[in-house]
Amino acid sequence: MTTSLPTEIESNRQPDHEINPQFLTRWSPRSFTDQEVTEDVLLSLFEAARWAPSGSNLQPWRFIIARTEEEKAKFYDFIMPANREWCEKAPVLTLVISYTKTSRGDSNPSHQFDAGTAWGYLALEANNQGLVTHAMGGFHRDQAREALQIPEDYDIHAVIAIGHRGPVDALSEKFQEREAPSTRRPINELLFAGEFGKSL
Q: How confident is the model at residue 3 (pLDDT cuts 50, 70, 90)?
């Protein structure tokens, strides 16, 4: 690649084909500082998510944002202890949910796909703004639904921690070992030619 990358990225992530560096520099640290994320910057992340592709333009994704100590305490009650250990430093938590119905009341088969795309847009814009994000699946969905009064026709997907990156040594030892950008499968494992299992 023509653009120089931070050493930790260069050491762990080498693309098979040239791409914009934002796709390599976005990763999911666990160490956060408690520095506030200003409202204009925070809203820019959700503005990016707003423009994600959407089947039939239904835009099923929704985000419940927790910024105050009272709001975050509700989230802590349903987040599993291993995630709480590091995410409590993050100044913002958000829950990604999606509406499961179409405007006619039928089942929307692409609501999860679309919500995942919106989260991806949010994560990339956070990276563009100098922030880090980390999505978590380790939480109790039934408790989240009850605590946040989420209607039954919304699916619950992930809790996302948002904030400024903190130092590695602020984490417990077990997390310090994992605080590095992850690698990816080679592209030839992801692509098939014309039918499943046929190499490109």
A: low
